[in-house]
């Protein structure tokens, strides 16, 4: 027993750390969020770094299992699914149908532009990597993170100063493009692992688009719509109460990702589609109105996730000259991504997006592109499909597997740090 208590980074410490952080944050949340304009994302990450192996060495998730990637993948999957389902539920009735044109214009060209530009600079800054490897890394950094997005646009200052239509558009965009990162990643990986480009493109179309994306959306929509009809029926029969509606909030999100991930489809898009479908006619929203349980669950999951990320970040890999990774290259890459990933395309396209009224809102929307849970999830998913790297890497696939997470983790860390300034009065265009 004493040996267990003395064991550094025991998994049981996670409960103490998470519980203590949530209790402490709850006691000063109003001061921190509304006066200091800092949300649980930044504080959770900082606390994770402090408790992690590079500081106090109390909380080290990498020591819990030999397959850290699998653990990380499932933690990020659950948190993302809950966040995406929540966004789908909280959007107004039939929002996706009414704003499909704006979302299509905002999501697809912006993602494609950022993907290609980021890949080009990855190739330029890390000369050992091929352009195809750059595309794989850029695919992980393409989506806007829905968890950080929700924490920012849902804040009191954003509610007061950012127009409602723009906040809804940014939330819907962050949910849509998170699942659409799959095709960008899959074409990169197929081009890396397949023997011919023809085979890679064929698999990308059949598996990346038809099986993963389209089937995932269809499955999520069917599940969401089916459960909404079943709940209406059971309510009419007097079989379900208000609290059970709120329970469906958590249960359906988990059920949806379980079904779609088992089938190998896009579980993130499926979760968002299920949330949108279950609230399509507004009935589910009416039944769960003023219920705070889902918000509490979101807060606890977000705190746990970002504490995990803070402890998980591989600081020791940010300087690996033998792999071509140096701090100055990482810093330059991050700055380029912040400036060029979203701002130029949105400044060019905003006139075709009615929800964005002027160039200042377009600039705000372009700068608003946090990278976080989604980027870590996609990069970890990529590692499960790549060859395990030797030391030193023997080919381009192994080199990509070796440098993917350090590059993505550095960009995510910097993105989390600067995104707290979205809530500062001096940084908003309104």
TrEMBL record:
Membrane topology, as annotated: Multi-pass membrane protein
InterPro entries the record matches: Cation/H_exchanger_TM, Na+/H+_antiporter_fungi
MF term (GO), any: sodium:proton antiporter activity
Major localisation: membrane
Compartment(s) where it occurs, according to its Swiss-Prot or TrEMBL record: Membrane
Highest taxon in the source lineage: Eukaryota
Domain Cation/H+ exchanger transmembrane stretches: 25-418
Segments crossing the lipid bilayer: 12-32, 41-59, 71-91, 103-126, 132-159, 204-227, 296-315, 327-350, 362-386, 398-418
Signal peptide: none
GO cellular component: a single term: plasma membrane
Keywords of the record: Antiport, Ion transport, Membrane, Sodium, Sodium transport, Transmembrane, Transmembrane helix, Transport
GO BP terms: intracellular potassium ion homeostasis; proton export across plasma membrane; regulation of membrane potential; sodium ion export across plasma membrane
Record family assignment: Belongs to the fungal Na(+)/H(+) exchanger family.
PANTHER family (alphabetical): NA(+)/H(+) ANTIPORTER (PTHR31382), NA(+)_H(+) ANTIPORTER (PTHR31382:SF4)
Protein name in UniProt: Cation/H+ exchanger transmembrane domain-containing protein
